[in-house]
Amino acid sequence: MSDDDAVMCAGLEYAFGETRAVDGLDLSVTTGEVFGLLGPNGAGKTTAIRCITTLLPVPAGRIRVFGHDAAKERMAVRRLLGYVPQQLSADAGLTGRENVALFARVFDVPRRERARRVAQALYAVDLTEAADRMARTYSGGMIRRLELAQALVSAPRLLMLDEPTIGLDPIARTSVWEHINAVRRATGMTVLVTTHHMDEADQYCDRLALMHRGKIRALGTPQGLKSELRERRGPDDPPPTLEDVFRDVAGRGLDSEGGDFRDVRSTRRTAARLG
Amino acid sequence: MSAAPAAPQPASAEPLGTAGALDLLLVPPRPRTGWRVLPARAGALCAVELQKLRHDRAELYTRAVQPALWLLIFGETFTRIKAIPTGGIPYIDYLAPGIIAQSAMFIAIFYGIMIIWERDSGILTKLLVTPTPRSALITGKAFAAGVKALIQAVVVIAIAALLGVALTWNPLKLIGVGVAVVLGSAFFSCLSMSIAGIVLTRDRLMGIGQAITMPLFFGSSALYPVSIMPGWLQAVSKANPLSYQVDALRGLLLGTPTHLGLDYGVLLLAAALGILAASSLLGRLAR
């Protein structure tokens, strides 16, 4: 771990009452990579993300974002972040352009370049034609892309996406990922994404951390993690998938995990709104 | 922060669309600092409120119904029966500033529900991850409530004028009315957002909102002078910012004796304390 990393967490802990959501998390995300944080509902992914984004305090451990301490330099950290939460966070009562313009304003984009910057963010996610339509008329995939444009308008160095494809159909999921990758190629930004879709993580992430019960259980490239399991199982077994890797590291406790009531409600509400 | 490129562009990077189409997305904006942050954020959130009203004016029309009924039914009836001492002015004239304050308060007092809805829908979460101090976010919301209430006040003034209420059209006094409406709404929206920060759910807040709205309204000078209230209600009225707002509005719109310095002082102090309380409780909503 070094201060050159985009994100560095050391011994991060966070508890909700008696429940330890994050339990001694050590993590480093290298600048420029797409890093996936995987795990079932209730694994502690969202809590870890919320600590990194400064939404939650850091009661124990240390978080640095591009060298800035997330506990002490909150504003400096926030200026480096583009964040897309798990919930559907675009404002349905505004047009796509107005949604993005709000974030341009709160990130202090000067008036003289605001319209151009907003237009570029919308162009980057292929929403130029729909920009002046009300967000309530957008499809699920379009809303996710609009949220991506909101995050991109401030030129973040770190894009944080919490379950970006939750509730989307396979075509919309692919479209969202294609836009994430295209934007990353164009800007070189680091992407930290949480998901419980193993296929997406396998296909789109450079490196993965498998999280279970607040801890990182495995870390590596998707291919590396699968190869490691194959070596342990022997060549007679069929080639393992990422899901096999996850079941292997999480053990039998996996089936009892499912997140708390609020997690499930939030997930279902988002899925319902996306249609 | 420097205006350096957002991140080093990797050698393998492919341009998205036409060359240079995303040049601005590589450069972070220069941050505002110091006192300029607060008005900038408040301006951004007020602009959003106006944009929403522009897209959907139904709220404006439906919210005009209740004040119109108060003035038309309550105002006209009590003007006829002359049951309330108003210092020689028709009761409907006396009532109009109270109804302006009431309709502004009704808009502001449910801002807590809005902030819980924004929490649940992720909008608040995303705003809290921007470089916006919590106090600036709350100030922005408070003034956004003020802008909405101001538009409502214009509608109620228009209704009152149509009903023959003798209001002033002095522009300076009307600006004073606007300031009183915005400050009062800022306080009541912060009161609501503070309660939201304590109770955390919409259902609880709706119950509390309904429970406090009527006592605040009836425990003020909106409907009748403080002098005819029983002693305990006079004490409530003196601690109620709505009374000071109504006093300022009545003095400015009707020219009745008023205490503008005290009224504005109390409203300003109440708004400042409200912003302080709501800002300190906002973190609970983020968790």
How would you portray this structure in words?
The complex is a heterodimer of chains A (275) and B (287). Chain A has helices spanning 45-52, 74-80, 96-106, 111-124, 140-152, 170-187, 198-204, 222-233, 242-250, 261-274, and strands spanning 7-16, 19-29, 34-38, 60-65, 68-69, 81-84, 158-162, 190-195, 207-212, 215-220. By secondary structure, chain A is α/β, with parallel strands linked by helices. A 6-stranded mixed sheet of chain A has the order 6-7-8-3-9-10, with helices on both faces. In chain A, helix 5 packs parallel to helix 6 (170-187). The model of chain A has no long low-confidence stretch (mean pLDDT 88). Chain B has 287 residues and is mostly helical. Chain B has one domain. Chain B has 11 helices and no strands. Chain B is globular and about 70 Å long. The two termini of chain B are 28 Å apart. In chain B, 46% of the residues are buried. The chains are: A alpha/beta (275), B mainly alpha (287). At the A-B interface, helix 2, strand 6, helix 3, helix 4 and helix 5 of A face helix 1 and helix 5 of B. Chain A: Residues 221-275 are annotated as: Disordered. Chain A: It comes from Streptomyces violascens. Chain A: Its main location: membrane.
Strand elements of chain B, count: 0
CATH architecture of chain A: 3-Layer(aba) Sandwich
CATH topology of chain A: Rossmann fold
Number of helices of chain B: 11
Low-confidence stretches of chain A: none
CATH class identity of chain A: Alpha Beta
Assembly category: heterodimer
The number of distinct structural domains of chain B comes to 1
| Proportion in helices of chain A | 40-55%
- Class computed from helices, strands and strand pairing of chain B: mainly alpha
Overall average residue pLDDT of chain B: 88
Q: Gyration radius of chain A, to the nearest Å? A: 19 Å
Structurally, how many domains make up the residues of chain A? 1
Rounded average pLDDT of chain A: 88
Subcellular location (chain B): Cell membrane; Membrane
Keywords (chain B): Antibiotic resistance, Cell membrane, Membrane, Transmembrane, Transmembrane helix, Transport
Membrane topology (chain B): Multi-pass membrane protein
Protein name (chain B): Transport permease protein
